[in-house]
């Protein structure tokens, strides 16, 4: 896994990836029940950057830091360390994520806003750190944004096995510290940042637009997980809460992304996570930036 800093310029703003983990050779059906490795391998552009030659896929967990104007905004702070989670490759980890965050030039207390595309465990984790047995906020100067739909979703799923302890350990400490704001799913966050509703994966899921000096970028969140879904937009992901709504959102958002000409950054895309969406017959293709 390469953890060298990747950064993209969008007008006068920058977007920097801070990688927590990247896993290769995953059988695609683990995340996409309708998929097979052979079907992934049919798409040469996917194999080039995002899968092995057999069609087993690579996925990344990363946070994005956006600097625009006077703002420093963190998007989707990964899984975190020492989290008591069901998935073995997320549970009780000791990743050097905060060291990479510092190496990329950022300080936790300088983050002014934390955007969550949704409240799954791998998008809220570093909001808290375990200190002397207590989960305390990491980004102490930041407003942490949640949509009403996803806060409710986090509360009602708090006892389900696959959401185990995420609300208790990663979300409630932020609410208790008074660092949380509930925002509309189409909120204008200022400085060229705007949320767009992209529901289905979770009820209140949002994506994030950045506009600066005439250029645009779109951070997907989990309305899609892997670039193969540009070619196979009907493939549902195992975590999609409402498969039909998520599928409709995927078709709509991919078309919007293509027509906008925006730099699209896939939250779980590995290797080269930023690129443009172009038409490829009836479906779409992702053309990564260097
Ligand atoms: Zn998710
Ligand atoms: Zn995710």
Write the layout of secondary structure elements.
Layout: E1 6-10, E2 13-26, H1 37-41, H2 44-50, E3 57-68, E4 71-75, H3 97-103, E5 113-115, H4 121-124, E6 128-131, E7 134-137, E8 143-147, H5 148-156, H6 166-176, E9 180-183, E10 188-190, E11 193-197, E12 206-212, E13 215-219, H7 228-231, H8 243-260, E14 263-265, E15 274-280, E16 283-288
Parallel strand pairs: 4-5, 5-8, 8-9, 13-14
Antiparallel strand pairs: 1-2, 2-3, 3-4, 6-7, 10-11, 11-12, 12-13, 14-15, 15-16
The protein binds zinc ion (2 copies).
The proportion of residues in beta strands is 25-35%
Largest sheet descriptor: 7 strands, mixed
From N to C, what is the helix and strand string? EEHHEEHEHEEEHHEEEEEHHEEE
Small-molecule binders here are: zinc ion
Class by alpha and beta content:
alpha+beta
| Total number of helices | 8
Task: Please state the overall shape, judged from the principal axes of the Cα atoms.
Answer: globular
Tell me the strand order in the biggest sheet. Answer: 1-2-3-4-5-8-9
The averaged pLDDT comes out at 96
Poorly predicted regions are none
The number of E-state strands comes to 16
Report the span from N to C terminus: 17 Å
The gyration radius over C-alpha positions equals 18 Å
């Amino acid at each position: 896994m390469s953890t060298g800093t990747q950064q993209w310029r969008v007008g006068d703003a920058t977007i920097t990836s801070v990688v927590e983990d990247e896993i290769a050779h995953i059988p695609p059906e683990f995340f996409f029940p309708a998929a097979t490795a052979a079907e992934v391998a049919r798409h040469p552009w996917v194999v080039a950057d995002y899968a092995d030659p057999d069609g087993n896929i690579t996925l990344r967990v990363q946070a994005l830091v956006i600097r625009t104007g006077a703002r420093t905004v963190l998007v989707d702070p990964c899984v975190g360390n020492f989290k008591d989670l069901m998935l073995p490759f997320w549970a009780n980890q000791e990743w050097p994520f905060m060291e990479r965050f510092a190496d990329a030039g950022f300080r936790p207390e300088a983050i002014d806003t934390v955007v969550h595309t949704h409240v799954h465990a791998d998008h809220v984790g570093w909001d808290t750190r375990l200190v002397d047995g207590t989960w305390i906020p990491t980004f102490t100067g930041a407003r942490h944004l949640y949509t009403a739909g996803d806060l409710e979703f986090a509360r009602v799923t708090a006892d389900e096995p696959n959401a185990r302890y995420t609300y208790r350990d990663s979300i409630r400490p932020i609410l208790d510290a008074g660092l949380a704001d509930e925002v509309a799913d189409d909120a204008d966050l200022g400085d060229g940042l705007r949320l767009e509703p992209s529901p289905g994966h979770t009820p209140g899921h949002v994506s994030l637009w950045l506009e600066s000096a005439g250029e645009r970028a779109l951070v997907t969140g989990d309305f899609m997980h892997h670039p193969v879904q540009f070619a196979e937009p009907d493939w549902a992901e195992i975590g999609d809460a409402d498969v039909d709504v998520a599928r409709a959102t995927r078709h709509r958002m991919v078309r919007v992304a293509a027509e906008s000409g925006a730099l699209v950054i896939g939250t779980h895309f590995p290797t080269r996570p930023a690129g443009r969406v172009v038409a490829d017959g009836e479906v779409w293709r992702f053309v990564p930036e260097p």
